[in-house]
Amino acid sequence: MINNNSFGRMDNVFREYCLVKRVKLWIPLHVTGLWIPVWRHSPLLSGSLGAGLLMEPGIEVEAVPAKEWRIDITVEGKQLSGLPSIASETLNLMNSATPAHIRISSPVPLGAGFAVSAGIALGIALGAGLLSGMGLLESASIAHEAEIRAETGLGDVVAMLHGRGLEIRVAPGGPGIASVESYPVPRLEILAAVLGSMETREMHKVLGKRLYEAASPRLARLLSRPGLEAFLQEARGFSVDTGMAEDKLAGILDRLVEEGALRGWYLKKRVLIMVPGMENKQAIMKRLAGILDRRFYSLRLTTEPLQVSVKV
User: Fold this and answer.
1) pLDDT grade for 5, boundaries at 50, 70 and 90
2) Which of 29, 177, 245, 257 would bridge 173 by S-S if both were Cys, CB 3.0 to 4.6 A apart?
3) Are 229 and 131 in a shared domain?
4) What is the DSSP string of 12-67?
5) How far apart, in whole angstroms, are the C-alpha atoms of residue 174 and residue 93?
6) 292 to 99, 198, 262: CA distances (angstroms)
7) Domain limits at 204?
8) Torsion of CA 95, 96, 99, 105, to 10 degrees
9) pLDDT per residue over 223-253, tens digit each?
10) pLDDT for residue 138 is more than 90
């Protein structure tokens, strides 16, 4: 198990950089499998309890000083014509930072459930923050606050900042406040399918109390026996209990698990995560072709942390 108790000491290291010329970041994708929302009077005290998986390829960011702010966001190879709300919210909170030109590239879509909004917030906050001499946790806290204020996420920022492999959020809040425990997982291939899009605020409004009722016992069981197999079981049950996975789709996927084709599956918002078993990704895609008329994404579990490269 890895925890984030020593992570805060990196803040002092980054404060030593006075004349930073370029910041590069690699941010893992994060797909949570079960969660309990926690809202408090302060955005930095708000967050979630829950568990999720970190995946690659990740979100890539490059930031350099500029005379005025410029944010370029590319999603699946196409540049966005306007800034999403999370980018605007993060910029509003970066009023003391030096203007920067920040390029952000995501291999997966925004608004599906891959935590791309958290990646964008981290990219802007860490990129501009480190260029301005701010500490790592100070900058990441701005990303977390932006997610809370924009209602685009609760626990993704701390999961992506502190998590490795299987992450379990055992105390809510922003960076330096939340507690995240990490457990190693094999670098298994992941097959993902996007079934549509759903805003986080819409999801919380629709699901309401069901999130608490479905997640609490499952999170307790997972904490008693943390590991990939237990996570997949509890995340699958959470997907069904909350209604995110329709009965017909759940039945088809469960049969693939019974046959050994899949090790497990779960659904977060509108992204379906499948861990192949005895069959490879191509065989599974072929079997689901007539059921899921969607694009599939080839991902992989990762235990690599968020990576920061600074040029001075």
Assistant:
1) very low
2) 177
3) no
4) HHHHT-SS--EEEEEEEEEEEEEEEEE--SSTTT-EEEEEEEEEEEEEEEEEEE-S
5) 15
6) 44, 18, 16
7) 185-301
8) -70
9) 999 999 999 999 999 999 998 899 999 999 9
10) yes
